[in-house]
């Protein structure tokens, strides 16, 4: 997760905990008690019709403290219920505990985290990889975190960090356009192309497997507990695979850039509603294709490296000739082929779209930081000669 505030980003990093046996028992008891506190606060909120946090606090705080929750954990339980605002939530499962800066602290000297539990304050070792260690050392502050227990009994802490984003150096960088798709997940105007073939094949395999399980779940005689668990595992595995694949892809793209470069993306909204796909398989892939997630990861990794990100108008990027400027639906001969009917220029259609995206970033002279992330004024002091068009 990532949020922007000026040149500071708020990131969430998951770290594995290595608790001793007594510490694991304390964590388990804390999760159970926090769940009971949340369920009690939710029940009172529904009975009174009061989900506003300040008023709910006065209704349940003393009772939560009497149950054994610390002051700050009681406040976090009330905050979690208050965010529901009378929604369909029936009850909470013992899955997580929310911590703030007063109930959680990090010490990188010995790579441990201190957490408030029902058995007092415990300092628990962390199991860190190089990527996690780099972000934790780079962070300006730790804002809190969420304690969770995995399906195999492992404990994790999702730390919320404030990380300073380097201000991109002005002038001299390249403008690189990126066209996103399914057959080619990403095509760069610099000439690099990243295939989406494996991601597509894996998602289709999960689609077939889930269809088999779904058909059994629809028959009451075969709706076993093990089958329900299998359904949940399949969804989790697919989500983890997609997330891992997108992280790897966006890292490879950002590694091709240098601080001061400008990454140009299409400002796509309502993509699924505007585009129709024929066939069950095509609709499934189109509706589940992670365009938003891909742009999200690409943007935050680029900003961490000092690369500016701009968004341009997506209209006709795959139909406009980058050589003569002629726009026509006929130019896009197929999914892969672009051939201008006016000047005869011919090239890969995805590459043509990425070049047009980069050229629009150059022409507009300013860009948007994207929906929901505020505005970032940019000055693109570059000329069209940064885009090299090969001979047809």
Describe the protein:
This protein has helices at 21-48, 53-67, 71-82, 130-138, 197-217, 225-255, 271-274, 280-288, 291-305, 349-364; strands at residues 2-5, 8-17, 96-100, 104-107, 112-117, 120-127, 141-149, 155-164, 175-180, 184-188, 193-195, 262-266, 308-312, 337-339, 346-348. The chain has two domains: 2-164, no CATH class; 175-386, no CATH class. The strands form three sheets. Strands 1, 2, 3, 4, 5, 6, 7 and 8 form an eight-stranded antiparallel beta sheet that branches. Strands 11-10-9-12-13 form a five-stranded mixed beta sheet, sandwiched between helices. Strands 14-15 form a two-stranded antiparallel ribbon. The chain has 392 residues and is α+β, with helices and mostly antiparallel strands.
Global mean pLDDT: 82
Low-confidence stretches: 1-6, 366-392
Strand segment count? 15
Strand content: 15-25%
Distance between the termini: 43 Å
Number of domains: 2
| Structural class assignment | alpha+beta
Q: Percent helix among the residues?
A: 40-55%
Q: Compute the number of helices.
A: 10
Whole-angstrom Rg: 25 Å
Task: Tell me, briefly, the overall form.
Answer: globular
Task: Characterize the main sheet.
Answer: 8 strands, antiparallel
SSE order, one letter for each helix or strand: EEHHHEEEEHEEEEEHHEHHHEEEH
